[in-house]
Amino acid sequence: MNEIIIAVVVPILTSLISYIGARYQSKSELDKVKEQQNAEIQRIKEQAKNELEKIRLQMDKQAELYEKNAQVDVTKDIMGQFMGSAEGKKIVNQVFQQEFFSKKR
Questions:
Q1: How would residue 84 be classed by pLDDT, with cut points 50, 70 and 90?
Q2: Are 69 and 75 in contact (CB under 8 A)?
Q3: Using N-to-C axis directions, what is the helix angle for 2-84 and 86-96, rounded to 10°?
Q4: How far is residue 4's CA from residue 7's CA, in Å, rounded to a whole number?
Q5: What gap in Å lies between CA 96 and CA 87, rounded to an integer?
Q6: Does residue 101 lie in a domain region?
Q7: In total, how many domains does the chain have?
Q8: pLDDT digits (tens, 9 = 90+) for 26-47
Q9: Residue 103 maps to a domain
């Protein structure tokens, strides 16, 4: 009878120890993978944050450039209208006459 108990108990204990060891190892590996994944997520978040900041700076620069271009376009339109009118040509002609031809050198 003792032999039967020993024949049954030893394999049960061996499998129980193997099961506990496998669970511990799996939990340890799972924790390691979780840490790696959290580190990867943090890296991706930081990279996305940097990319968004870069895009925001580019958009700010582009907005400034568009604003400057709009100002130049408005000035060009005003000067074009002014120079296209007879009165504008007359004023410019008078200024040239006064500045370049009236002064003694």
A1: confident
A2: no
A3: 80
A4: 5
A5: 14
A6: no
A7: 1
A8: 999 999 999 999 999 999 999 9
A9: no
Question: 104 falls in which pLDDT band (50, 70, 90)?
Answer: low
- In this structure, is residue 104 part of a structural domain? no
Expressed as residue numbers, the domain containing 52 is 2-95
**Is 28 within the bounds of a domain?**
yes
pTM recorded for the entire structure: 0.52
DSSP characters over the chain: -HHHHHHHHHHHHHHHHHHHHHHHHHHHHHHHHHHHHHHHHHHHHHHHHHHHHHHHHHHHHHHHHHHHHHHHHHHHHHHHHHHHSHHHHHHHHHHHIIIIISS--
